[in-house]
Amino acid sequence: MLFQDQILAIISAQPGISIADIREALPDVKRNSIVSAVARLRESGRIERVGVGAYRVARSDNPERKPDARDYIRPLLSRLMGRR
Q1: Could you write out the DSSP letters of every residue in the chain?
Q2: pLDDT tens digits, 20-70
Q3: What are the φ and ψ backbone dihedral angles of 25, each rounded to 5 degrees?
Q4: Does the global pTM surpass 0.90?
Q5: 53: phi > 0 → left, psi -120 to 50 → alpha, else beta; which?
Q6: Which candidate in 2, 5, 15, 20 could, as Cys together with 56 as Cys, close a disulfide (CB 3.0–4.6 Å)?
């Protein structure tokens, strides 16, 4: 998690930053590690893509959240438990 926090700090300091700029800020880290961390941050909703290869910290008023497995399992479990 510390690595993702470093990337998040870099992105928050420079909105619209690219993967290449993040690589310059973290020269000891492999490109694939940076790309996968950015993808995880984007999937979690902490950053958003603003252009081709450009990212910024997600706005707090953005309610866009991808549903996860719990959103599908809870209604199924409640229906199953209610029928018993």
Answers
A1: -HHHHHHHHHHHHSTTEEHHHHHHH-TTS-HHHHHHHHHHHHHHTSEEEEETTEEEEPPTT-------HHHHHHHHHHHHHHH-
A2: 999 999 999 999 999 999 999 988 888 998 888 899 998 776 556 666 666
A3: -75, -25
A4: no
A5: left
A6: 15
